[in-house]
Amino acid sequence: MKNPADQNDVESRLMEERVRKLDAEYGFHFSDEEIKLIARQTEKFDRLFRSLNQVDLAGVMPLLKLNRKEP
Amino acid sequence: MVRLDLEELTLSEACAQIQRRELSPVDLTSGYLERIGKLNPALNAYVTITEERALADARGAEEEIRQGKYRGPLHGIPVSVKDNLATQGVRTTAGSKILADWIPDHDATVVQRLKQAGAVMLGKNNMHEWALGGTTINPFYGTTRNPWNRDRIAGGSSGGSAVAVAASLCLGSIGTDSAQSVRNPASMCGIVGLKPTYGRVSQFGTVAGTGAFSTNHTGPLAKTVEDCALILQAIAGYDPRDPLSSSEAVPNYSACLDGNLRGLKAGVLRGYFDEVMASDVRKSFSEAMEVLKSLGMQFEEVTTPHMDLIPAIKVCTSRVENAAAHDPLLRTRSQDYSRQTLYSYVSALLTPATTYMMAQRARRVVCAEFDDLLKRVQLLMVPTVPFSAPTIEECNQGLLEIDGKKYPRQDERSGLDTFTTIPFNITGLPAISVCCGFSKAGLPIGMQIAAGAFEEQLIFQVAHSYERAAGWYKRKPVLPL
Prior knowledge:
The complex is a heterodimer of chains A (about 70) and B (about 475).
Chain A: H1 4-26, H2 32-50
Chain B: H1 11-19, H2 25-43, E1 46-49, H3 51-66, E2 78-82, H4 109-116, E3 120-125, E4 137-138, E5 142-143, E6 145-146, E7 149-153, H5 159-166, E8 172-177, H6 183-189, E9 192-195, E10 217-222, H7 225-235, E11 265-269, H8 279-294, E12 298-302, H9 310-332, H10 339-348, H11 353-376, E13 379-383, H12 392-396, E14 399-402, E15 405-408, H13 422-427, E16 431-438, E17 444-451, H14 456-470
Parallel strand pairs in B: 2-3, 2-8, 11-12, 11-13
Antiparallel strand pairs in B: 1-3, 4-5, 6-7, 8-10, 9-10, 9-16, 13-17, 14-15, 16-17
Protein backbone atom coordinates (compact mmCIF):
# COMPACT_ATOMS: atom_id res chain seq x y z
CA MET A 1 0.00 0.00 0.00
CA LYS A 2 1.26 3.47 -0.86
CA ASN A 3 2.25 5.81 1.95
CA PRO A 4 -0.33 8.69 1.92
CA ALA A 5 2.46 11.22 2.52
CA ASP A 6 4.32 9.95 -0.58
CA GLN A 7 1.09 10.00 -2.55
CA ASN A 8 0.46 13.65 -1.58
CA ASP A 9 4.01 14.49 -2.57
CA VAL A 10 3.49 12.93 -6.01
CA GLU A 11 0.20 14.82 -6.46
CA SER A 12 1.86 18.08 -5.44
CA ARG A 13 4.65 17.59 -7.94
CA LEU A 14 2.12 16.75 -10.67
CA MET A 15 0.21 19.95 -9.88
CA GLU A 16 3.40 22.00 -10.03
CA GLU A 17 4.09 20.41 -13.41
CA ARG A 18 0.66 21.53 -14.66
CA VAL A 19 1.35 25.09 -13.48
CA ARG A 20 4.74 25.01 -15.25
CA LYS A 21 3.04 23.95 -18.50
CA LEU A 22 0.64 26.89 -18.23
CA ASP A 23 3.55 29.17 -17.40
CA ALA A 24 5.30 28.09 -20.59
CA GLU A 25 2.13 28.31 -22.72
CA TYR A 26 1.06 31.76 -21.51
CA GLY A 27 4.53 33.22 -20.93
CA PHE A 28 3.98 34.28 -17.31
CA HIS A 29 7.65 33.79 -16.31
CA PHE A 30 6.73 32.68 -12.78
CA SER A 31 9.47 31.98 -10.25
CA ASP A 32 9.69 28.51 -8.65
CA GLU A 33 8.21 29.97 -5.49
CA GLU A 34 5.21 31.38 -7.41
CA ILE A 35 4.64 28.05 -9.18
CA LYS A 36 4.57 26.25 -5.84
CA LEU A 37 2.18 28.86 -4.41
CA ILE A 38 -0.26 28.54 -7.32
CA ALA A 39 -0.04 24.75 -7.17
CA ARG A 40 -0.91 24.74 -3.44
CA GLN A 41 -3.81 27.16 -4.09
CA THR A 42 -5.15 24.93 -6.86
CA GLU A 43 -4.87 21.81 -4.68
CA LYS A 44 -6.83 23.57 -1.96
CA PHE A 45 -9.65 24.33 -4.41
CA ASP A 46 -9.53 20.81 -5.84
CA ARG A 47 -10.12 19.46 -2.33
CA LEU A 48 -13.06 21.87 -1.91
CA PHE A 49 -14.58 20.82 -5.24
CA ARG A 50 -14.39 17.12 -4.29
CA SER A 51 -17.32 17.80 -1.96
CA LEU A 52 -19.49 18.18 -5.07
CA ASN A 53 -19.26 14.38 -5.51
CA GLN A 54 -21.59 14.02 -2.51
CA VAL A 55 -24.59 15.13 -4.58
CA ASP A 56 -26.62 12.75 -6.70
CA LEU A 57 -26.63 14.63 -9.99
CA ALA A 58 -28.22 11.95 -12.13
CA GLY A 59 -30.54 13.67 -14.60
CA VAL A 60 -29.91 17.16 -13.21
CA MET A 61 -29.46 19.88 -15.84
CA PRO A 62 -27.70 23.19 -15.07
CA LEU A 63 -29.91 26.15 -14.22
CA LEU A 64 -29.88 28.92 -16.82
CA LYS A 65 -32.77 31.24 -16.03
CA LEU A 66 -35.11 32.00 -13.12
CA ASN A 67 -38.89 32.19 -13.29
CA ARG A 68 -41.38 33.40 -10.74
CA LYS A 69 -42.79 30.59 -8.61
CA GLU A 70 -46.37 29.62 -9.43
CA PRO A 71 -48.65 30.48 -6.49
CA MET B 1 -26.41 79.26 -3.86
CA VAL B 2 -28.86 77.62 -1.44
CA ARG B 3 -27.15 75.98 1.56
CA LEU B 4 -28.08 72.28 1.45
CA ASP B 5 -27.87 69.72 4.25
CA LEU B 6 -26.58 66.93 2.04
CA GLU B 7 -25.87 64.61 4.99
CA GLU B 8 -29.55 64.47 5.88
CA LEU B 9 -31.01 64.64 2.39
CA THR B 10 -32.36 61.41 0.89
CA LEU B 11 -33.13 60.71 -2.75
CA SER B 12 -36.89 60.56 -2.15
CA GLU B 13 -36.82 63.91 -0.32
CA ALA B 14 -34.72 65.50 -3.06
CA CYS B 15 -36.99 64.23 -5.82
CA ALA B 16 -40.09 65.61 -4.07
CA GLN B 17 -38.41 69.01 -3.72
CA ILE B 18 -37.21 69.00 -7.34
CA GLN B 19 -40.67 68.08 -8.60
CA ARG B 20 -42.14 70.99 -6.62
CA ARG B 21 -39.34 73.20 -8.03
CA GLU B 22 -38.13 74.01 -4.52
CA LEU B 23 -34.73 72.49 -5.19
CA SER B 24 -32.56 73.23 -8.20
CA PRO B 25 -30.74 70.24 -9.78
CA VAL B 26 -27.87 72.64 -10.57
CA ASP B 27 -27.55 73.73 -6.93
CA LEU B 28 -27.83 70.12 -5.79
CA THR B 29 -25.19 68.90 -8.24
CA SER B 30 -22.86 71.81 -7.36
CA GLY B 31 -23.29 70.96 -3.69
CA TYR B 32 -22.27 67.35 -4.27
CA LEU B 33 -19.31 68.31 -6.45
CA GLU B 34 -18.08 70.70 -3.75
CA ARG B 35 -18.44 67.97 -1.11
CA ILE B 36 -16.66 65.42 -3.33
CA GLY B 37 -13.82 67.94 -3.76
CA LYS B 38 -13.46 68.19 0.02
CA LEU B 39 -13.91 64.54 1.01
CA ASN B 40 -12.79 62.38 -1.89
CA PRO B 41 -9.06 62.86 -1.18
CA ALA B 42 -9.61 61.28 2.27
CA LEU B 43 -12.09 58.57 1.23
CA ASN B 44 -11.19 57.71 -2.40
CA ALA B 45 -14.77 56.85 -3.33
CA TYR B 46 -14.44 58.21 -6.89
CA VAL B 47 -11.77 57.36 -9.46
CA THR B 48 -13.26 59.71 -12.06
CA ILE B 49 -15.33 62.82 -11.38
CA THR B 50 -17.29 64.06 -14.39
CA GLU B 51 -17.81 67.60 -13.15
CA GLU B 52 -18.44 69.44 -16.43
CA ARG B 53 -20.75 66.77 -17.78
CA ALA B 54 -22.65 66.60 -14.47
CA LEU B 55 -23.24 70.35 -14.41
CA ALA B 56 -24.33 70.33 -18.06
CA ASP B 57 -26.76 67.46 -17.36
CA ALA B 58 -28.07 69.25 -14.26
CA ARG B 59 -28.68 72.43 -16.28
CA GLY B 60 -30.48 70.34 -18.91
CA ALA B 61 -32.65 68.67 -16.26
CA GLU B 62 -33.45 72.00 -14.64
CA GLU B 63 -34.53 73.48 -17.96
CA GLU B 64 -36.72 70.47 -18.82
CA ILE B 65 -38.41 70.59 -15.41
CA ARG B 66 -38.93 74.36 -15.78
CA GLN B 67 -40.69 73.63 -19.08
CA GLY B 68 -42.95 71.11 -17.33
CA LYS B 69 -41.22 68.05 -18.82
CA TYR B 70 -40.63 66.24 -15.52
CA ARG B 71 -39.45 62.71 -16.27
CA GLY B 72 -39.91 61.10 -12.84
CA PRO B 73 -38.22 60.54 -9.47
CA LEU B 74 -34.62 60.44 -10.74
CA HIS B 75 -34.89 63.61 -12.83
CA GLY B 76 -32.09 65.95 -11.74
CA ILE B 77 -30.84 63.51 -9.06
CA PRO B 78 -27.01 63.22 -8.74
CA VAL B 79 -25.86 59.58 -8.78
CA SER B 80 -22.67 57.61 -9.39
CA VAL B 81 -21.83 54.20 -10.83
CA LYS B 82 -19.21 51.55 -10.15
CA ASP B 83 -16.28 51.71 -12.54
CA ASN B 84 -17.03 48.37 -14.20
CA LEU B 85 -20.16 49.74 -15.87
CA ALA B 86 -19.43 51.09 -19.33
CA THR B 87 -19.97 54.83 -19.71
CA GLN B 88 -19.87 56.32 -23.18
CA GLY B 89 -17.04 58.85 -23.46
CA VAL B 90 -16.02 58.39 -19.81
CA ARG B 91 -13.06 56.24 -18.72
CA THR B 92 -14.07 52.81 -17.37
CA THR B 93 -11.23 51.00 -15.58
CA ALA B 94 -12.90 48.05 -13.79
CA GLY B 95 -10.32 48.81 -11.11
CA SER B 96 -7.65 47.40 -13.42
CA LYS B 97 -4.40 48.68 -14.87
CA ILE B 98 -5.27 47.06 -18.20
CA LEU B 99 -8.31 49.30 -18.74
CA ALA B 100 -6.72 52.43 -17.23
CA ASP B 101 -7.27 54.38 -20.46
CA TRP B 102 -10.35 52.65 -21.86
CA ILE B 103 -13.08 55.07 -22.94
CA PRO B 104 -16.14 53.04 -24.03
CA ASP B 105 -18.19 54.01 -27.09
CA HIS B 106 -21.38 52.83 -25.42
CA ASP B 107 -23.28 52.99 -22.14
CA ALA B 108 -24.17 49.95 -20.06
CA THR B 109 -27.94 49.49 -20.09
CA VAL B 110 -28.20 50.58 -16.44
CA VAL B 111 -26.32 53.78 -17.24
CA GLN B 112 -28.51 54.38 -20.27
CA ARG B 113 -31.64 53.87 -18.16
CA LEU B 114 -30.41 56.23 -15.45
CA LYS B 115 -29.79 58.86 -18.13
CA GLN B 116 -33.23 58.27 -19.67
CA ALA B 117 -34.71 58.81 -16.20
CA GLY B 118 -32.91 62.17 -16.09
CA ALA B 119 -30.32 61.29 -13.42
CA VAL B 120 -27.13 63.36 -13.26
CA MET B 121 -23.91 61.28 -13.35
CA LEU B 122 -21.31 62.62 -10.93
CA GLY B 123 -18.61 60.09 -11.74
CA LYS B 124 -17.25 56.58 -11.46
CA ASN B 125 -16.60 54.78 -8.19
CA ASN B 126 -13.50 52.94 -7.09
CA MET B 127 -13.74 49.15 -6.81
CA HIS B 128 -11.67 46.05 -6.10
CA GLU B 129 -9.38 45.13 -9.02
CA TRP B 130 -11.62 43.35 -11.58
CA ALA B 131 -14.24 43.06 -8.76
CA LEU B 132 -12.26 40.07 -7.46
CA GLY B 133 -12.43 40.74 -3.73
CA GLY B 134 -14.25 42.42 -0.91
CA THR B 135 -11.87 45.07 0.40
CA THR B 136 -11.52 47.78 -2.31
CA ILE B 137 -7.83 47.90 -1.46
CA ASN B 138 -6.84 48.63 -5.03
CA PRO B 139 -3.15 48.54 -6.03
CA PHE B 140 -3.69 50.90 -8.99
CA TYR B 141 -6.31 53.40 -7.78
CA GLY B 142 -5.70 53.34 -4.02
CA THR B 143 -7.72 52.12 -1.06
CA THR B 144 -11.29 53.28 -0.51
CA ARG B 145 -11.74 54.12 3.16
CA ASN B 146 -14.71 53.50 5.42
CA PRO B 147 -16.36 56.80 6.39
CA TRP B 148 -17.13 55.42 9.88
CA ASN B 149 -13.44 54.80 10.55
CA ARG B 150 -10.88 55.58 7.87
CA ASP B 151 -8.45 52.92 9.12
CA ARG B 152 -11.00 50.32 8.09
CA ILE B 153 -12.05 48.91 4.73
CA ALA B 154 -15.24 49.97 3.03
CA GLY B 155 -15.99 46.42 1.94
CA GLY B 156 -16.25 45.57 -1.71
CA SER B 157 -16.04 45.08 -4.48
CA SER B 158 -18.40 48.07 -4.91
CA GLY B 159 -16.66 49.88 -2.02
CA GLY B 160 -16.50 53.25 -3.78
CA SER B 161 -20.24 53.20 -4.48
CA ALA B 162 -21.08 52.43 -0.85
CA VAL B 163 -18.76 55.13 0.49
CA ALA B 164 -20.11 57.68 -1.99
CA VAL B 165 -23.62 57.06 -0.60
CA ALA B 166 -22.64 56.77 3.09
CA ALA B 167 -20.53 59.94 3.00
CA SER B 168 -23.25 61.85 1.10
CA LEU B 169 -21.16 62.22 -2.05
CA CYS B 170 -24.21 61.30 -4.18
CA LEU B 171 -27.85 60.35 -3.60
CA GLY B 172 -27.57 56.82 -4.93
CA SER B 173 -25.20 54.52 -6.74
CA ILE B 174 -25.06 51.34 -8.80
CA GLY B 175 -22.87 48.36 -8.00
CA THR B 176 -22.47 44.80 -9.19
CA ASP B 177 -22.63 41.70 -6.99
CA SER B 178 -21.42 38.21 -7.93
CA ALA B 179 -20.62 37.08 -4.36
CA GLN B 180 -21.25 39.97 -2.00
CA SER B 181 -20.21 43.11 -3.83
CA VAL B 182 -23.28 45.31 -3.34
CA ARG B 183 -24.44 43.95 0.02
CA ASN B 184 -21.08 43.63 1.76
CA PRO B 185 -20.00 47.28 1.32
CA ALA B 186 -23.56 48.42 2.03
CA SER B 187 -23.37 46.53 5.33
CA MET B 188 -19.91 47.81 6.24
CA CYS B 189 -20.85 51.41 5.44
CA GLY B 190 -24.27 51.38 7.13
CA ILE B 191 -26.44 51.91 4.05
CA VAL B 192 -28.91 49.90 1.96
CA GLY B 193 -27.82 47.69 -0.95
CA LEU B 194 -29.96 45.42 -3.09
CA LYS B 195 -28.95 42.43 -5.15
CA PRO B 196 -32.05 41.97 -7.29
CA THR B 197 -33.29 38.68 -8.75
CA TYR B 198 -30.98 37.21 -11.39
CA GLY B 199 -32.05 38.71 -14.73
CA ARG B 200 -34.09 41.55 -13.16
CA VAL B 201 -31.51 44.18 -14.17
CA SER B 202 -29.59 43.96 -17.43
CA GLN B 203 -25.93 42.98 -17.33
CA PHE B 204 -25.23 44.51 -20.74
CA GLY B 205 -22.23 46.81 -20.50
CA THR B 206 -20.80 45.31 -17.32
CA VAL B 207 -17.10 44.84 -18.09
CA ALA B 208 -16.40 41.19 -18.94
CA GLY B 209 -14.35 39.44 -16.27
CA THR B 210 -15.78 41.49 -13.38
CA GLY B 211 -18.18 38.82 -12.16
CA ALA B 212 -19.20 35.39 -13.37
CA PHE B 213 -22.20 35.46 -15.70
CA SER B 214 -23.98 32.74 -13.69
CA THR B 215 -23.89 34.68 -10.43
CA ASN B 216 -23.45 38.36 -11.27
CA HIS B 217 -26.16 40.95 -10.62
CA THR B 218 -26.43 44.72 -10.93
CA GLY B 219 -28.12 46.58 -8.10
CA PRO B 220 -28.66 49.90 -6.34
CA LEU B 221 -27.06 51.32 -3.18
CA ALA B 222 -28.79 54.14 -1.33
CA LYS B 223 -29.36 55.70 2.09
CA THR B 224 -32.83 54.26 2.54
CA VAL B 225 -34.97 51.39 1.31
CA GLU B 226 -37.37 53.86 -0.31
CA ASP B 227 -34.46 55.35 -2.30
CA CYS B 228 -33.34 51.88 -3.34
CA ALA B 229 -36.83 51.12 -4.64
CA LEU B 230 -36.85 54.32 -6.71
CA ILE B 231 -33.52 53.45 -8.34
CA LEU B 232 -34.52 49.84 -9.04
CA GLN B 233 -37.68 51.14 -10.72
CA ALA B 234 -35.55 53.05 -13.22
CA ILE B 235 -33.06 50.28 -14.05
CA ALA B 236 -35.13 47.06 -13.93
CA GLY B 237 -36.67 45.31 -16.90
CA TYR B 238 -36.02 43.25 -19.99
CA ASP B 239 -33.11 44.19 -22.21
CA PRO B 240 -32.78 42.55 -25.63
CA ARG B 241 -29.01 43.14 -25.44
CA ASP B 242 -28.76 40.83 -22.41
CA PRO B 243 -29.91 37.29 -23.28
CA LEU B 244 -30.14 36.43 -19.57
CA SER B 245 -32.40 39.35 -18.67
CA SER B 246 -35.97 38.51 -17.68
CA SER B 247 -39.17 39.60 -19.39
CA GLU B 248 -41.02 39.44 -16.05
CA ALA B 249 -43.15 42.61 -15.67
CA VAL B 250 -41.68 45.36 -13.48
CA PRO B 251 -44.11 46.25 -10.68
CA ASN B 252 -44.33 49.60 -8.85
CA TYR B 253 -41.71 49.05 -6.15
CA SER B 254 -42.75 52.06 -4.08
CA ALA B 255 -46.42 51.12 -3.93
CA CYS B 256 -46.28 48.62 -1.04
CA LEU B 257 -43.58 50.07 1.19
CA ASP B 258 -45.94 50.77 4.07
CA GLY B 259 -47.74 47.42 4.01
CA ASN B 260 -48.56 45.48 7.15
CA LEU B 261 -46.06 42.78 8.18
CA ARG B 262 -48.47 40.91 10.44
CA GLY B 263 -48.51 37.19 9.68
CA LEU B 264 -45.46 37.20 7.43
CA LYS B 265 -43.19 34.24 8.16
CA ALA B 266 -39.42 34.40 7.77
CA GLY B 267 -36.78 31.70 8.00
CA VAL B 268 -33.58 32.54 9.83
CA LEU B 269 -30.96 30.83 7.71
CA ARG B 270 -28.54 28.53 9.56
CA GLY B 271 -25.49 26.83 8.11
CA TYR B 272 -21.72 26.67 7.68
CA PHE B 273 -21.41 30.41 8.40
CA ASP B 274 -22.65 30.19 12.02
CA GLU B 275 -19.23 29.24 13.38
CA VAL B 276 -17.53 32.53 12.39
CA MET B 277 -20.28 34.98 13.37
CA ALA B 278 -19.05 37.82 15.62
CA SER B 279 -20.97 38.29 18.88
CA ASP B 280 -21.78 41.94 17.96
CA VAL B 281 -23.35 40.75 14.73
CA ARG B 282 -25.36 37.98 16.46
CA LYS B 283 -26.62 40.49 19.01
CA SER B 284 -27.67 43.15 16.47
CA PHE B 285 -29.32 40.55 14.24
CA SER B 286 -31.18 39.04 17.14
CA GLU B 287 -32.40 42.48 18.27
CA ALA B 288 -33.57 43.17 14.70
CA MET B 289 -35.65 39.98 14.81
CA GLU B 290 -37.29 41.27 17.98
CA VAL B 291 -38.16 44.55 16.22
CA LEU B 292 -39.71 42.61 13.34
CA LYS B 293 -41.60 40.33 15.78
CA SER B 294 -43.04 43.46 17.38
CA LEU B 295 -44.29 44.40 13.90
CA GLY B 296 -46.11 41.07 13.63
CA MET B 297 -43.64 38.82 11.83
CA GLN B 298 -42.96 35.22 12.78
CA PHE B 299 -39.65 33.40 12.60
CA GLU B 300 -38.30 29.89 12.47
CA GLU B 301 -34.77 28.59 11.96
CA VAL B 302 -34.25 26.95 8.57
CA THR B 303 -31.53 25.30 6.52
CA THR B 304 -31.24 23.14 3.40
CA PRO B 305 -29.82 19.61 2.91
CA HIS B 306 -26.87 20.79 0.76
CA MET B 307 -26.17 24.16 2.37
CA ASP B 308 -22.53 23.16 3.01
CA LEU B 309 -21.91 22.77 -0.72
CA ILE B 310 -22.67 26.41 -1.52
CA PRO B 311 -19.04 27.66 -1.18
CA ALA B 312 -17.76 24.90 -3.52
CA ILE B 313 -20.46 25.63 -6.11
CA LYS B 314 -19.91 29.38 -5.94
CA VAL B 315 -16.12 29.29 -5.98
CA CYS B 316 -15.98 26.77 -8.83
CA THR B 317 -18.44 28.51 -11.16
CA SER B 318 -17.04 31.99 -10.50
CA ARG B 319 -13.39 31.06 -10.85
CA VAL B 320 -13.88 29.20 -14.12
CA GLU B 321 -16.17 31.79 -15.73
CA ASN B 322 -13.87 34.64 -14.70
CA ALA B 323 -10.75 32.87 -15.92
CA ALA B 324 -12.43 32.15 -19.26
CA ALA B 325 -13.23 35.86 -19.64
CA HIS B 326 -9.63 36.79 -18.81
CA ASP B 327 -7.93 34.16 -20.96
CA PRO B 328 -7.04 36.48 -23.88
CA LEU B 329 -5.64 39.13 -21.51
CA LEU B 330 -3.72 36.52 -19.51
CA ARG B 331 -1.88 35.63 -22.73
CA THR B 332 -0.95 39.23 -23.60
CA ARG B 333 -1.11 41.45 -20.49
CA SER B 334 -0.31 39.19 -17.53
CA GLN B 335 2.20 41.71 -16.15
CA ASP B 336 -0.62 44.24 -15.74
CA TYR B 337 -2.53 42.24 -13.11
CA SER B 338 -1.67 42.42 -9.41
CA ARG B 339 0.15 39.19 -8.52
CA GLN B 340 -2.65 37.84 -6.24
CA THR B 341 -5.26 38.39 -8.94
CA LEU B 342 -3.05 36.75 -11.55
CA TYR B 343 -2.41 33.71 -9.33
CA SER B 344 -6.14 33.31 -8.81
CA TYR B 345 -6.91 33.30 -12.55
CA VAL B 346 -4.02 30.98 -13.38
CA SER B 347 -5.10 28.55 -10.68
CA ALA B 348 -8.66 28.66 -12.04
CA LEU B 349 -7.43 27.67 -15.51
CA LEU B 350 -6.56 24.30 -13.99
CA THR B 351 -10.14 23.45 -12.97
CA PRO B 352 -11.45 20.62 -15.19
CA ALA B 353 -14.51 21.39 -17.35
CA THR B 354 -16.24 18.35 -15.83
CA THR B 355 -15.87 19.86 -12.33
CA TYR B 356 -17.39 23.12 -13.56
CA MET B 357 -20.37 21.25 -15.02
CA MET B 358 -20.78 19.31 -11.79
CA ALA B 359 -20.90 22.63 -9.88
CA GLN B 360 -23.52 24.01 -12.26
CA ARG B 361 -25.67 20.92 -11.84
CA ALA B 362 -25.24 20.95 -8.05
CA ARG B 363 -26.30 24.60 -8.16
CA ARG B 364 -29.65 23.50 -9.56
CA VAL B 365 -30.09 21.05 -6.66
CA VAL B 366 -29.45 23.87 -4.17
CA CYS B 367 -31.87 26.17 -6.01
CA ALA B 368 -34.61 23.53 -5.79
CA GLU B 369 -33.96 23.18 -2.05
CA PHE B 370 -34.33 26.93 -1.56
CA ASP B 371 -37.57 26.82 -3.58
CA ASP B 372 -38.85 24.16 -1.17
CA LEU B 373 -37.82 26.32 1.77
CA LEU B 374 -39.78 29.22 0.34
CA LYS B 375 -42.95 27.11 0.37
CA ARG B 376 -42.74 27.13 4.20
CA VAL B 377 -41.61 30.72 4.74
CA GLN B 378 -41.99 33.85 2.62
CA LEU B 379 -38.66 35.42 3.49
CA LEU B 380 -35.16 34.37 4.47
CA MET B 381 -32.98 36.38 6.84
CA VAL B 382 -29.32 36.19 7.79
CA PRO B 383 -26.62 38.74 8.69
CA THR B 384 -24.99 40.29 5.61
CA VAL B 385 -21.38 39.82 6.76
CA PRO B 386 -20.36 37.74 9.81
CA PHE B 387 -18.31 40.67 11.19
CA SER B 388 -18.06 44.45 10.93
CA ALA B 389 -15.43 46.22 8.80
CA PRO B 390 -11.89 44.97 9.56
CA THR B 391 -8.87 47.28 9.50
CA ILE B 392 -6.99 47.85 6.26
CA GLU B 393 -3.87 46.54 8.01
CA GLU B 394 -5.58 43.26 8.98
CA CYS B 395 -6.74 42.78 5.40
CA ASN B 396 -3.25 43.42 4.05
CA GLN B 397 -2.02 40.66 6.38
CA GLY B 398 -4.80 38.32 5.22
CA LEU B 399 -6.24 38.15 8.73
CA LEU B 400 -9.44 38.92 10.58
CA GLU B 401 -10.07 39.32 14.27
CA ILE B 402 -13.45 38.08 15.45
CA ASP B 403 -14.20 38.32 19.18
CA GLY B 404 -10.48 38.48 19.98
CA LYS B 405 -9.60 35.39 17.91
CA LYS B 406 -7.60 35.65 14.68
CA TYR B 407 -8.81 33.92 11.51
CA PRO B 408 -7.41 33.81 7.97
CA ARG B 409 -9.65 36.00 5.77
CA GLN B 410 -9.91 33.08 3.36
CA ASP B 411 -10.45 29.60 4.78
CA GLU B 412 -10.38 26.31 2.86
CA ARG B 413 -13.84 27.08 1.47
CA SER B 414 -14.04 30.76 0.56
CA GLY B 415 -13.58 34.32 1.81
CA LEU B 416 -15.21 34.55 5.25
CA ASP B 417 -16.83 37.83 4.20
CA THR B 418 -18.81 36.07 1.45
CA PHE B 419 -20.20 33.25 3.60
CA THR B 420 -23.68 34.64 4.16
CA THR B 421 -24.14 36.44 0.85
CA ILE B 422 -23.24 33.69 -1.66
CA PRO B 423 -26.37 31.57 -1.07
CA PHE B 424 -28.32 34.30 -2.89
CA ASN B 425 -25.82 34.54 -5.76
CA ILE B 426 -26.04 30.79 -6.32
CA THR B 427 -29.82 30.77 -6.20
CA GLY B 428 -30.30 34.15 -7.91
CA LEU B 429 -32.86 35.10 -5.26
CA PRO B 430 -33.20 38.80 -4.42
CA ALA B 431 -31.59 39.97 -1.16
CA ILE B 432 -31.25 43.38 0.42
CA SER B 433 -28.80 44.51 3.10
CA VAL B 434 -30.13 47.01 5.61
CA CYS B 435 -28.35 48.41 8.67
CA CYS B 436 -29.39 46.57 11.86
CA GLY B 437 -27.09 48.15 14.41
CA PHE B 438 -23.54 49.10 15.30
CA SER B 439 -20.64 47.19 16.84
CA LYS B 440 -19.00 48.17 20.13
CA ALA B 441 -16.38 49.94 17.99
CA GLY B 442 -19.12 52.05 16.36
CA LEU B 443 -19.11 50.21 13.02
CA PRO B 444 -22.28 49.42 11.08
CA ILE B 445 -23.73 45.91 10.92
CA GLY B 446 -26.08 44.76 8.17
CA MET B 447 -28.72 42.08 7.83
CA GLN B 448 -30.08 40.50 4.69
CA ILE B 449 -33.71 40.05 3.85
CA ALA B 450 -34.29 37.70 0.91
CA ALA B 451 -37.39 36.31 -0.80
CA GLY B 452 -38.55 34.31 -3.81
CA ALA B 453 -37.57 35.22 -7.37
CA PHE B 454 -38.94 38.63 -8.46
CA GLU B 455 -40.36 39.35 -5.00
CA GLU B 456 -38.38 42.56 -4.49
CA GLN B 457 -41.63 44.32 -3.50
CA LEU B 458 -41.99 42.08 -0.45
CA ILE B 459 -38.34 42.62 0.49
CA PHE B 460 -38.74 46.39 0.23
CA GLN B 461 -41.87 46.27 2.38
CA VAL B 462 -40.17 44.37 5.23
CA ALA B 463 -36.88 46.29 4.98
CA HIS B 464 -38.65 49.66 4.92
CA SER B 465 -40.83 48.81 7.92
CA TYR B 466 -37.80 47.61 9.87
CA GLU B 467 -35.71 50.63 8.87
CA ARG B 468 -38.41 53.08 10.06
CA ALA B 469 -38.99 51.17 13.30
CA ALA B 470 -35.29 50.76 14.17
CA GLY B 471 -34.12 54.16 12.95
CA TRP B 472 -30.43 53.25 12.34
CA TYR B 473 -30.51 55.09 9.01
CA LYS B 474 -30.57 58.38 10.92
CA ARG B 475 -27.04 57.83 12.26
CA LYS B 476 -24.34 59.50 10.13
CA PRO B 477 -20.53 59.17 10.06
CA VAL B 478 -18.47 62.13 11.28
CA LEU B 479 -16.37 63.33 8.36
CA PRO B 480 -13.36 65.68 8.07
CA LEU B 481 -15.06 68.64 6.37
